[in-house]
Design brief:
single chain, alpha/beta, TIM Barrel, 46% helix, globular, binds flavin-adenine dinucleotide
């Protein structure tokens, strides 16, 4: 099933994310975590694509396992910066052969030391979106950045390029993580003004340790509000307390989004079924409304 058909329904959809193992040796652990996450009955599970393209085989393998064996719809991420156009095309054809209907089209981070752009590679995600559109009847998602993408100095440029990407054939958008919902509401207002009308799934990351917070900040440049920093300051050295507080913070963000009319939410569950399960437990009544 195409994910966009689900997202357009007038009901709440919660999705989760897993990342594939870097080597075949780690496959069983990821498979087991994925199975437990599927047991929470999400609307779909997305499978990331390792920076550098090294997980390509396992992304496709896990995405088809989720769909065919676990009976949950899957979304395969695909990046293009670290592969040639021909290599990317091979991955698209493989996804098609496996019956995968949903792809999250991403540029990926530019690998260090690489001369970029180069003739044989896509420069921006919108070019990948066009290539996927030409290759078959896929539902295509893409990334967006409520706080602006780190490479862009001006948020207006970010939104201009986002419009170009959506117009190339994107069905829905998923946001980078954020920890202040007002930033998301402001972003939604600005992109709607710019004529971007596709569904936008806020991406919620439950932060359950100080180390994870540091990594997330480095990766996305996100701003952590005072309320979050106070929580980290008080509980950061107590792993169990920090985990509980981080789950509560993410739950609170989700409840606020749902209370304000958001219908579709993506949770960066990061192969941690017990955290995904706690959040679903916290939302058990809320998502029935
Ligand atoms: P683009 O949309 O191409 O944008 C990249 C930059 O170029 C932006 O600054 C944009 O404003 C600018 N730009 C776009 N078009 C133009 C243009 N025509 N002219 C000038 N500038 C332009 N990374 C992974 O490696 N694997 C994953 O699985 C993965 N999953 C992700 C999922 C989500 C929901 C998000 C938000 C990010 C994910 N990433 C992943 C990270 C992503 O690959 C990086 O943030 C990357 O730097 C940008 O990718 P993009 O697809 O947004 O690129």
């Amino acid at each position: 099933m195409k994910i966009i058909d689900r997202l357009l329904e007038d009901k709440i959809h919660i999705s989760f994310e897993v990342f594939p193992p870097k080597t075949d040796a780690g496959y069983e652990k990821v498979r087991s975590a994925t199975e437990q996450i599927a047991g929470l009955h999400p609307s779909y599970i997305s499978v990331t694509y390792g920076a550098g393209g090294g997980t390509s085989k396992n992304t496709a393998k896990i995405a088809s396992y989720i769909r065919d064996e676990l009976g949950v719809e899957s979304l395969a991420h695909l990046t293009c910066a670290s592969s040639t156009k021909a290599e990317v095309q091979t991955v698209i054809e493989n996804l098609k052969a496996l019956g995968i209907e949903n792809i999250l089209a991403l540029r990926g981070d530019i690998p260090e030391g690489m001369v970029f752009p180069s003739e044989d590679r896509y420069h921006y995600a919108y070019e990948l979106v066009e290539a996927i559109r030409r290759s078959g009847d896929f539902c295509i998602g893409a990334a967006c950045y409520p706080e602006g993408h780190v490479e862009n100095e001006h948020k207006e440029d970010d939104i201009k390029f986002l419009k170009q990407k959506v117009d190339s054939g994107v069905d829905f958008l998923t946001t980078q993580m954020f920890f202040d919902n007002d930033i998301h509401y402001n972003f939604l207002y600005r992109i709607r003004e710019a004529g971007i009308t596709v569904p936008v799934l806020p991406g919620i990351m439950p932060i359950t340790s100080a180390a994870q917070m540091k990594r997330s900040q480095e990766l996305s440049g996100t701003v952590f509000p005072r309320r979050f920093l106070a929580m980290l300051d008080r509980f950061g050295d107590h792993p169990k307390a920090m985990e509980q507080a981080g789950i509560a913070y993410a739950t609170d963000q989700i409840i606020d989004l749902l209370a304000n009319g958001v219908k579709n939410i993506h949770i960066y569950s990061m192969n941690k079924p017990h955290i995904a399960a706690k959040i679903m437990e916290n939302l058990s009544e809320v998502i029935q409304c």
